[in-house]
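Changelog note: in this version the structure field was regenerated for every chain. One regenerated record is shown below for reference.
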Amino acid sequence: MYINAIGHYIPSARVSNEYFKDLNGLDADWILQRTGIETRSRCAEGENVDTMAYEAVEDALPRLPYPITDVDLIVAAHYCAFDTVGTAAHRVQRKYGIEGAKAVYASSACSSFANGLEIIEGYFAMGKAKRALLICSEQNSYYSNDNDPKAGHLWGDAAVAYFLSADRVSDSDLEVLSVYTEGLGHIGAGPDGVLLRPKEEGITMPNGRDVFMYAVKYMQHALENNLRNIGLDKDDITYFITHQANMRIVKQLARMMDMPMDRFLNNIQELGNTGSASAPLVLSQHQNELKKGDTVALMVFGGGYSCAAFTVRK
């Protein structure tokens, strides 16, 4: 499976740590020390999951080596939804006139993008699709409560769009070497670790310590299984990208893996936690810096719980 083009969209607005002082009493330096976040991206009025998805697709199109109408599978994989019936997959299909394509929506919290990759991998393996578009658009601000002292200061908004094919299309393709996913609803707080109930409190994190502990453990677990499947070791990896939930999680993973922090690519300091878009967004932001032969391992953890990892090579 190959990635033919990547695009992303990040809203221009930023909300600083100082904004939360009067809302929930949290000091700006405390937020930075506890999370690694200084600002977070936020949608402007009129922007939403769907409009960000369009912008991410537009960003990828100049690098797409075939017409977008050649796509025969569209997967929207994220947990934030503007409409769960007319999903981002269907909106993009309509906007770009992608006739005859399958359009589906899937969610597994912050692992959603990786699960979307695996869904596409399955369609390719069955011969039911050859070219796919994977959309991941998270408008956390649509659901988050800035007054929540536990989690209101964490969330950012962003979207990514990845075009994939079953076979190599061009020399610039990134090869997806392996995708590993695993549901973990049976461990720790599981489905009660992070909640998104739109008609009640929105996004909440009642069990943050539990989330932190299992995120560190199971992102490493997912990475090890992913690399084992393709006969690679962590020393074979050029860069690591984790789910951008908390910089302390990244630093703890680096210590556990005995890897220097300069091998980890991050964007959480500026953008906050952009959900399941976060790790693939980091890859999109750094795609032009990759050299031939570079290998990037991405690992994620989602509330619910779930974990995943996937590895790509330039």
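Spot check on this record: The first strand starts at residue 2 and ends at 9. The chain has a mean pLDDT of 97.
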